[in-house]
Recover the amino acids of this structure.
């Protein structure tokens, strides 16, 4: 069974279209990166998946309708949207007691172990904690929940670089077990590059690109081309071109790797470079296809 | 995780409700701190007033039994009245903030990430002012009156007077029963539609919930005055606030009276249409608040 299945998902705020017919299928056990500029519709899509907003179109999450079966869904799904939004009045022990009491899948010892590695004390109140510590506390609570789907919307915003790295490391090491599904929307494309199994680029409420990382590696090739071969390179119709130290980096979609190797050094583009190429290039949009 | 529990089973609703109410008491400590502070202030004032107590008792002992009753019982009634006003004020401000505060600080996204329904959450926020707050203030008021009685007895004994008139005239134990009844019926059931309305506004307003709660009520009253030159709506709201209802004169005085011992008629109260119409409104307001919290786009 697919973890998330969406067909023709639409959402408008007044005259602004936030989601313009999204088709998406996320299998269980995948780590999907939802990548797009501000206002692209990432958060709206995630809110629809979490039953936090109304929508039109068809949507099933773990076989349930998130709009009408939200309460049941929340036993199997957990999420962190945006930056830390824990109540400022709460003390750490109160949050732990509360979640342990109401969530049947919460493992208190896991949360305690996670917090033991931080400087957060159970008697501190959220108000006294730094922004980074609040995020750590939120992660400790969420990661101790044995959920089937974890949704993260900019989870590491406000964390310093050390903790951001630690977060994704522990996500992979302690949390991800190939049965769980993780959907993460983020601007910090570089951080998630090695974590994801699938990526979706979204812009203006539409999916621009939807592919697995293996597909991405076989399909997209970046070549560092010397000026004398640039004409030959352009003849192969790169989707993006940018200069670098007197040479050019050409990005190709679906062109034979062997053929490209004759032009110069060949490598797989980073998600960030691919993002810039696909988003900044209307022909790239036309070439992006949905699975 | 408790290995005996089944992680696929939903947590029982009663357990969820219990923890939701606990959460409210963690968050809104004013529910017990404000009545405690007011009670402490009253006690300080009363303590100072006991300086003149021996003289008052000497004067009162010259009067008949019924004449004694008033000057001795009065401080207890005034103190209880102040506590009731405190309860109403705390309840009003609690309800206005209950569903607004979590949206303002965005913590609603955290609460909604847990498997606890909007119905249970809103219910817990209604139970707090309708049941918990009256019980808490009743307990604090009773404690306060008990201390008042002990202190004044001590003062009288030290001054070589008998404390007996105090104990017979303050009739504290009967008063506590009446007081508990008053807190539960008037502050709980009778005010329920007020709290329901405030919770609805709290779930709806994007800012300034206090203004949104008060202005529409004023607007309707003013519009009625201009259009029909009547003030039924204003009278309706005023009766509800002051604690009247039921229509009968006897009933209204019972709830306006500072001495509820004189009028104790649960039968009339429970059968009054005003009570049940109010409760129906409260239920409608709360249902609307649940819908708003459930379907409204976050923030």
């Amino acid at each position: 069974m697919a973890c998330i299945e969406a067909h023709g998902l639409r959402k408008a705020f007044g005259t602004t279209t936030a989601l313009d017919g999204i088709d998406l299928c996320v299998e269980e056990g995948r780590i999907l990166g939802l990548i797009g500029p501000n206002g692209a519709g990432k958060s709206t899509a995630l809110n629809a998946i979490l039953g936090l907003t109304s929508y039109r179109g068809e949507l099933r999450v773990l076989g349930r309708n998130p709009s009408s079966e939200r309460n049941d869904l929340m036993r199997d799904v957990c999420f962190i949207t945006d930056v830390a939004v824990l109540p400022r009045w709460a003390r750490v022990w109160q949050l732990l007691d509360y979640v342990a009491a109401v969530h049947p899948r919460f493992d208190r010892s896991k949360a305690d172990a996670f917090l033991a590695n931080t400087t957060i004390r159970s008697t501190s109140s959220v108000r006294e904690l730094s922004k980074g510590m609040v995020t750590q506390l939120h992660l400790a609570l969420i990661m101790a929940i044995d959920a089937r789907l974890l949704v993260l919307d900019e989870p590491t915003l406000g964390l310093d670089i050390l903790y951001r790295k630690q977060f994704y490391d522990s996500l992979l090491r302690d949390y991800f077990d190939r049965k769980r599904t993780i959907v993460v929307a983020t601007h910090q494309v570089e951080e998630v590059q090695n974590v994801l199994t699938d990526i979706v680029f979204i812009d203006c409420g539409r999916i621009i690109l939807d592919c697995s990382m293996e597909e991405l590696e076989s399909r997209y090739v970046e070549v560092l081309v010397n000026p004398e071969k640039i004409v030959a390179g352009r003849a192969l119709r790169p989707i993006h071109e940018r200069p670098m130290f007197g040479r050019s980096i050409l990005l190709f979609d679906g062109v034979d790797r062997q053929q490209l190797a004759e032009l110069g050094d060949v490598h797989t583009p980073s998600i960030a470079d691919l993002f810039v190429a696909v988003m900044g290039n209307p022909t790239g949009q036309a070439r992006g296809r949905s699975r | 995780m408790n290995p005996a529990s089944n992680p696929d089973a939903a947590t029982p609703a009663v357990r969820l409700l219990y923890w939701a109410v606990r959460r409210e008491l963690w968050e809104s400590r004013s529910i017990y701190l404000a009545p405690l502070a007011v009670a402490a202030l009253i006690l300080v004032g009363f303590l100072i007033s006991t300086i003149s107590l021996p003289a008052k008792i000497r004067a009162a002992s010259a009067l008949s039994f019924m004449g004694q009753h008033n000057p001795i019982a009065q401080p207890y009634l005034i103190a209880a009245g102040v506590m009731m006003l405190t309860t109403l004020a705390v309840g009003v401000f609690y309800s206005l903030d209950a569903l607004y505060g979590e949206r303002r600080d965005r913590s609603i996204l955290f609460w909604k990430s847990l498997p606890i329904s909007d119905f249970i959450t809103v219910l817990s926020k209604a139970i707090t002012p309708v049941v918990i707050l009256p019980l808490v203030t009743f307990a604090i008021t009773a404690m306060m009156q008990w201390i008042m009685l002990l202190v004044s007895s001590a003062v009288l004994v030290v001054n070589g007077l008998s404390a007996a008139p105090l104990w017979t005239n303050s009739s504290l134990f009967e008063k506590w029963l009446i007081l508990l009844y008053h807190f539960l019926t008037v502050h709980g059931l009778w005010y329920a539609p007020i709290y329901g309305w405030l919770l609805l506004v709290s779930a709806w307003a994007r800012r300034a919930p206090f203004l949104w709660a008060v202005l529409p009520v004023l607007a309707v009253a003013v519009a009625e005055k201009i259009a029909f030159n009547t003030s039924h709506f204003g009278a309706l709201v005023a009766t509800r606030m002051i604690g009247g209802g039921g229509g009968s004169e006897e009933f209204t005085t019972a709830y306006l009276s500072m001495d509820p011992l004189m009028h104790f008629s649960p039968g009339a109260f429970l059968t009054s249409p005003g009570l049940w119409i109010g409760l129906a409104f409260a239920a409608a307001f709360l249902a609307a608040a649940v819908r708003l919290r459930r379907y409204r786009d976050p923030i």
Remarks:
- Residues 206 and 214 of chain B are 15 Å apart (CA to CA).
- The radius of gyration of chain B is 23 Å.
- Confidence is low (pLDDT under 50) at residues 244-262 of chain B.
- Chain B touches chain A through 33 residues (CB under 8 Å).
